[in-house]
Amino acid sequence: MSKRIAFNDNWLFFDGEIETPQAPDKGPSYCQAKTEHYLAGPASIHFPDAVDHFLTPGMKAEINLRKTQSVTLPHDYIITQVPEEKRNKAWGFFDYHPAWYRKHFIIDEKDKDKRVVLYFEGVADHATVYFNGVYMYDNYEAHTPFEIDLTDFIRFGEDNVIAVHVECGTGEGWWYQGGGIYRNVWLEYNDPVSVARYGVYVHPDKKSGKNWNTPVETEIRNDNYRDVTVKVNTKLVAEDGAVIGEAEEKIEVPARSIGSVSQNILVKAPALWDIDTPVLYKAVTTLTVGRRVTDVQETSYGYREISYSPETGFYLNGRNVKLQGVCGHGDYGLTGLAVPESVFRYKAQLIKDMGANAYRCSHYAQAEYWMDEMDRRGIVVMDETRWFSSAPAALNDLRILMKRDRNHPSIIMWSIGNEEPFFITEQGARISRALYAEANKLDKTRPILTANDKDPEVATVYQYSDIVGVNYHMELFDKLHSMYPEKPILSTENTATGTSRGWYHDNVSSLGRISSFDHDTNAWFLSREKTWQYILDRSWLMGGMQWIAFEHRGEAEWPRLCSVSGAIDLYLQKKDAFYQNQSFWLDRPMIHVLPHWNHPGMEGKKIPVWAYTNCEEAELFVNGRSAGRVSIQPVQHAEWNVTYRPGTIEVVGYNNGEIVCRDVQETTGLPVSLKLIPENAGDVKPGDVLLLTCVALDEEGREVPDAAIDRILFYSDGGSAVIGTGSDHTDHVPPRMNARSMYAGRVSVAVKTGEKGGKIRVYAESAGLASGVIELTVK
User: The pTM is what?
Assistant: First the structure.
């Protein structure tokens, strides 16, 4: 039987390059021009790498004089730095440099009959892997997973060493690049007869009525040096464990080869995967040779019907659905590229809470766990490959992406490129044709498109696209609809208007602040309101992917560390734009008022007050008196100009003349105490990351929305540890620090819980304020 174990603990990390001098004599050159190519240096099994090395008399070893850290994966070593203005602003003002990882481990003698593989989900940017001094593999794409077959080079029962050299800052993108082994690593023990990597493909096809054909294609690898007969059994299993279908077949697989089996299972009236009811099934594949089971694999999939119309857009299970989408990168402000699974879950929940129903993977293969979350949450996905190229490496990246992800019912389209100058050239047409053909070989059930911002009206790639994808360029959509009447059209990227959380003044570039009120940035980056109104006015437009769900590091202007285009800030605090999107996308009545009502020095002066709402009418009350009741057209906001006086502003939403929702802001006193609020406590298990928000309270216990506190110290006990803090996108103190200044009344705190769980306490302390303490039980 095959087995898979997490391989994330006890890695040794060397920050920086390790130079190995060139040998002057023939002997070392001769000895290292062999299979075990590296007998010295960090790729060698003999390299001294102990942490804080102590030697005692009689020990035979070379002492380690280099700084060595013991780290747990996933790990991003770039995020720990202090940003510097002289560094590349697209990449977040960090110093990108090489590093080394090493790990010692033992493979038992009893596993000599196994195929032993290391599976890396992602290493940024370029990774060169060595095993026991043997060069194994180069991986040149930061987001593409890869495997290393260790089998022939293992020293059974002895010390083995895997070494990974990382080069980062190589130009993978124009956003924060990070660096390191930033996704999970797995050690796999496979029987010589096993299911191949991404070897099960389930692609349901509606037959008639409520009946579905369920084709299942399975690839079986035979690593024996003899032919074998393999029995392939596939069971389709519902969430309650009921078997809804089964097929079995035998196949002869030649020695050292991969064989394939195609099965078709009729399923009657399965529950459908949908946005509000994301029902999942699993295909359980069992391989048997003789009487021995050699492998069992479970593959998640779902039943759903998708279609596209050039006149009415996207359909899911026969229902017309406007794509209320957001783009997103795969990082997190406090941990960089190394995103904990509980944070992925929280981010997915925020997208859902905002009312979005679609997500674009910008602009690469995103984490496997994240893709699973899209299935579980009912969020449809535009999946995107990193490189628009038909060169062998880029074609391989596309194949891996599609084979890895094609069982996800959430994925409804494939993007083969983003914002490429070649999109308007003859070369681009040839590349697009090659990628289109390759993608269709791997999956014929979903449409293919490009996300184009380069003169769409003269683009050469649309002839090899099932959907016309356009970034920005709102002025061209009507023309493109006339040019391509047979093709659906999607706004693959739009808006990109920046706002700073809690900033209600004019833009001040020297402070890195941009007004939190919705606005146009330029002719391309239009306000959220204008953009969504434009999309709604065109029934033939499938919808749009708003840039961007979450602020991400990079694409910044000093002193800002991010572009501030997100509806949710760098540290996962909701911005006013989050609530504005709710006013576009939610069905339940909601209303949100801005700004806060703490404006000392503005007494007697006019202040704009806005309300984002999906109600028919809104009324503003200032200190209990009505400032006016206004009718609101769908998508539009309500706006008043009122004289500032301390007290209370309240907005009330009406439907059919009845009050259905309200929101209030009060003038508060100065901070006197701190409070910690759990954000994801109900979804945290031992070893997960707990997310907290620290707020400041006045003497009446009200949250002070504009609180600015110079230094708050955070710490925890009960086997837990504070691993990150953040508040202000212009704060250059590294996020790993426990002390943080508060901006706009909120600090985000990430706490790694202990592997054993139990009670933990987290503390927030600042001079002159009553401390905040929260006690939670993790189980």
Answer: 0.97
